[in-house]
Specification:
alpha/beta; binds adenosine-5'-monophosphate-propyl ester; 647 residues; 31 strands; GMP Synthetase, Chain A, domain 3; 23% strand; ligase; five-stranded parallel beta sheet; seven-stranded mixed beta sheet; globular; metal ion binding
Length: 647
């Protein structure tokens, strides 16, 4: 029997949306998108209100996505200036440092406004103008949010690079975006360990293609020693502190770019997902308010990093546009102990907690004790994001963390979507462990089979979205054709998500995972092609093939098959060396969990690697290999299966 948790009547009584209201508004959003979104546009402050609401065509020959296109506004004004009258003294960002012994900091809306204006003035003084790109490579500190908002204030396009990425990955992103300025820190601090951020930037800027960078602004965070290269490198405080506390915001068109965020696809290098101004902000703020059932006195904590889209939409832009208190946590869940998350919840009386299944599974493994040692009585709502949550982890989250009191919103979305597309509204939708359940306003999911036929009723297939929503990405930076080809050509007339999905008899959606060559490691997207090209760049590697395999904590792990160049002997040292090579080339998140020597790879006669077979070997399910008769040399399979047993 299906495990269903009906909406809690007590929760529903106070919630923003109950069943009837959700259904009525959802229907309206499909019947009359212009009316619905035109009405919603009033939640933003505009210099010039939009009169044209939606202009969208997914047709390949006549492709366009425009929302609110004659509107003029500024994102930082919406996140800061308009909060000042009512919420100037309210905490906007609540900073919890890596170590619990370092005091937390409350930054009010008035203080945040001042910090943002000062940095925005400094950026202008350094020659950054509307449309210029700025790379942000910072730890989870207040300055990360300040930097994003300061770019938004002057119309510069930010591109945040996750602090765990290695110099090569920074250089790729700087070069693709043509950034003029980088904002970084001396060092990051995570779980008591230092991360050499400035040194990584220095190494990145020695790589080809990074000449566009004129200035590196360095936040003094840990106080660790760093090399400063004049005139390129400037201390943040030297440049920013003396700036005026007011800054005239740039007037931005609704469709002007707001940010670029790089994400992995099934082919090639990570692509620059481009989001624009009004549609993105409106969608981030509305989903944040509705799905987290936001109230004025909430203390809201999303544990993501600002280096990922979740940090953009649900730590910075959505919450601040809603005047919420958003907690920023510098550290990790298991430092100094595995109770840290729950202790922070008690310390700051967190009411809404949003995290990833991988963290839940890792903490679940530590037993109930570290959770039960804390109160968590302040919590009223829990959220999950990044990958499918297995029902066992869902139940533990619900029963142990939430004391069977707090609804869980399992939110499905992507870097490309800008905000949540499928999730329960907690006062309106019954919960099922493992199901993302129902679409948000304006979102029309559909399932298609391999031929693109739309499947009706209870079914399983590829997940597509039939019409646009305002938060949708607008382009791949510098390659608009790649945008159209990647997302709109597979199943013409629809946006293809790259995910597989099941819809049950109640119309609830269950995401089953990626159907392309993207691996979801701890909720982070890694392209198999990226790891393969890192491996092949090692002088001793002739060929590599990478697949995902089920991993108890990470959801999926990375499994690499490596063919060495002729006469190069396989050794334990080389095995280690190749794993740390990938770590250094891309970053620790891309390091293979398993690396298997492969004298040959299973290929079709036309030379295409058959990953389906490699996946089954990695899963240790050789009995499910299926038909191998189309291979150029079927004997390589047997040898790989034998080797797998040895490991
Ligand atoms: O496969 C889906 C999975 O994460 C992918 C998007 O990754 P990214 O762009 O890095 O964004 C992550 C944060 C939004 C999706 O294609 N995914 C994300 N959330 C869920 C999920 N899979 C199942 N359930 C979710 N709630």
């Amino acid at each position: 029997m299906a495990d269903i948790h009906p909406v809690d009547p007590q929760f529903a009584a106070r919630a923003r949306y109950d069943k009837a209201r959700y259904q009525q508004l959802y229907q309206q959003s499909l019947d009359d998108p212009e009316g619905f979104w035109g009405q919603q546009a009033q939640r933003l402050d505009w210099f010039v209100k939009p009169t044209r609401i939606k202009d969208v065509s997914y047709a390949l020959e006549d492709f366009r996505i425009k929302w609110f296109e004659d509107g003029v506004l500024n994102v930082s004004v919406n996140c800061l200036d308009r909060q000042l009258a009512q919420r100037g003294d309210k905490t906007a960002l609540l900073f919890e440092p890596d170590s619990p012994d370092t005091p937390a900091r409350h930054v009010t809306y008035a203080q945040l406004h001042e910090k943002v204006c000062k940095l925005a003035n400094a950026l202008r003084a350094l020659g950054v103008a509307k449309g210029d790109r700025v790379t942000i490579y910072l730890p989870m500190i207040v300055e990360a949010a300040v930097a994003m908002l300061a770019c938004a204030r002057i119309g510069a396009v930010h591109t945040v690079v996750f602090g765990g990425f290695a110099p090569n990955s920074i250089a790729d992103r700087v070069s693709d975006s043509g950034s003029k300025l980088i904002i970084t820190a001396d060092e990051g601090l995570r779980g008591g360990k230092k991360v050499p951020l400035k040194a990584n930037v220095d190494a990145a800027l020695k790589l080809p293609g990074t000449n566009s960078v004129e200035t590196v602004l360095v936040v003094r965070h840990t106080g660790g020693a760093v090399a400063m290269q004049a005139p390129r490198d400037r201390w943040y405080h030297d440049v920013v502190d003396s700036q005026p506390a007011q800054c005239e915001p740039e007037r931005m068109n609704a469709e002007d770019p707001l940010f670029i965020l790089y994400t992995s696809g099934s082919t090639g290098k990570p692509k620059g997902v481009l989001h624009t101004t009004a549609g993105y902000l409106l969608y981030a703020s509305l989903t944040h308010e509705a799905i987290f059932d936001l109230r004025e006195d909430d203390v809201y904590w999303c544990t993501a990093d600002v280096g990922w889209v979740t940090g953009h939409s649900y730590i910075v832009y959505g919450p601040l546009a809603n005047g919420a208190t958003s907690l920023m946590f510098e550290g990790v869940p298991n430092y100094p102990s595995v109770s840290r998350f729950w202790e922070v919840i008690d310390k700051h009386q967190v009411t809404i907690f949003y995290t990833a299944p991988t963290a839940i599974r890792a903490l679940m493994r530590e037993g109930d004790g570290p959770v039960k040692a804390t109160s968590r009585a302040s919590l009223r709502l829990l959220g999950s994001v990044g990958e499918p949550i297995n029902p066992e982890a869902w139940r533990w989250y619900y029963e142990v963390v939430g004391d069977a009191r707090c609804p869980i919103v399992d939110t499905w979305w992507q870097t490309e979507t800008g905000g949540i597309l499928i999730s329960p509204l907690p006062g309106a939708v019954d919960l099922k462990p493992g199901a993302a359940t129902k679409p948000f306003f304006g979102v029309q999911p559909a399932l298609v089979d391999a031929d693109g036929q739309i499947l009706e009723g209870a079914a399983e297939g590829n997940l597509v979205i039939l019409d646009a929503w305002p938060g949708q990405m607008r382009s791949v930076y510098g390659d608009h054709q790649r945008f159209i080809d990647t997302y709109f050509r597979t199943y013409p007339g629809t946006y293809f998500t790259g995910d597989g999905c099941r819809r049950d008899a109640d119309g609830d959606y269950w995401i089953t995972g990626r159907v392309d060559d993207v691996i979801n490691v701890s909720g982070h997207r890694i392209g198999t092609a990226e790891v393969e090209s890192a491996l092949v760049s090692h002088p001793k590697v002739a060929e590599a093939a990478v697949v995902g395999f089920p991993h108890e904590i990470k959801g999926q792990g990375i499994y690499a098959y490596v063919t060495l160049i002729a006469d190069e002997p396989a050794s334990e040292e080389l095995h280690k060396e190749l794993i740390s090579w990938v770590r250094k080339e891309i970053g620790p998140i891309a390091a293979p969990d398993h690396l298997q020597w492969a004298p040959g790879l299973p290929k079709t006669r036309s030379g295409k690697i058959m990953r389906r077979i490699l996946r089954k070997i990695a899963e240790n399910a050789p009995e499910q290999l299926g038909d191998t008769s189309t291979l150029a040399d079927p004997s390589v399979v047997a040898s790989l299966v034998d080797q797998r047993k040895v490991r």
